[in-house]
Amino acid sequence: MAWLTVYPDNDPTVVELSSSDRMVVSGHLAMAGLLFERWNAEKAIDDTADTAAVLAAYAGPIAALKRARGFQSADVVRVPRGMPEAGALRAKFLAEHTHEEDEARFFVEGSGAFYLHVGDRVLRVVCERGDLLSVPAGTKHWFDMGPDPHFTAIRFFTRPDGWVAAFTGDVIADHFPRYDGPR
Ligand SMILES: [Fe+2]
């Protein structure tokens, strides 16, 4: 279950809210204009599963989400534990950026932390298995996969070409606590 921490955007030492209560997390994210839902993610995926195998295992929820949310396509991002290039991959998404389309992620394994810069708040959402989070187009955010990255997430797209990061140039991400891994 996702774990939400809310900070004022100008002071990362002040925690205004910290909760993993489902109603608190989904209610707070809804108020901020973010889609957050819990979906069943109980399918076992073995270490050798490729994109096709993950998509096949979750064909049911993927079809339901496409119908419910208008997603056009889905693919898989998988970071296995111990991946040699994990450090470089972690660094890639650690600076604040936006996209021209929604960034929708359904975590089916492992965890990672989204930091959403909404108004004058930073909302940190640690996503775990079963969490679906959609960051709306144009929302400033960054993502930390932690020091020992391990996750599998199904990515949904509403248009074929929108998922390119536009970096804001703001160094805000450097001032906030990093994600240090699962609790
Ligand atoms: Fe992003």
TrEMBL record:
PANTHER family: ACIREDUCTONE DIOXYGENASE (PTHR23418:SF0)
Residues that bind Ni(2+): H97, H99, E103, H141
SUPFAM superfamilies xrefs: RmlC-like cupins
Purpose: Catalyzes 2 different reactions between oxygene and the acireductone 1,2-dihydroxy-3-keto-5-methylthiopentene (DHK-MTPene) depending upon the metal bound in the active site. Fe-containing acireductone dioxygenase (Fe-ARD) produces formate and 2-keto-4-methylthiobutyrate (KMTB), the alpha-ketoacid precursor of methionine in the methionine recycle pathway. Ni-containing acireductone dioxygenase (Ni-ARD) produces methylthiopropionate, carbon monoxide and formate, and does not lie on the methionine recycle pathway.
Protein name: Acireductone dioxygenase
Chemical reaction(s) catalysed: 1,2-dihydroxy-5-(methylsulfanyl)pent-1-en-3-one + O2 = 4-methylsulfanyl-2-oxobutanoate + formate + 2 H(+); 1,2-dihydroxy-5-(methylsulfanyl)pent-1-en-3-one + O2 = 3-(methylsulfanyl)propanoate + CO + formate + 2 H(+)
Family: Belongs to the acireductone dioxygenase (ARD) family.
HAMAP family associated with the record: Salvage_MtnD
Keyword field contains Transport: no
Cofactor(s) demanded: Fe(2+); Ni(2+)
Site (May play a role in metal incorporation in vivo): E96
Quaternary assembly: Monomer.
Enzyme class: oxidoreductase
Site (Important to generate the dianion): R105
Note on how the cofactor is bound: Binds 1 Fe(2+) cation per monomer.
Annotated EC: 1.13.11.54, 1.13.11.53
Gene3D superfamilies linked: Jelly Rolls
Site (May play a role in transmitting local conformational changes): D102
Cell cycle among keywords: no
Binding residues annotated for Fe(2+), in chain numbering: H97, H99, E103, H141
UniProt keyword list: Amino-acid biosynthesis, Dioxygenase, Iron, Metal-binding, Methionine biosynthesis, Nickel, Oxidoreductase
Pathway of action: Amino-acid biosynthesis; L-methionine biosynthesis via salvage pathway; L-methionine from S-methyl-5-thio-alpha-D-ribose 1-phosphate: step 5/6
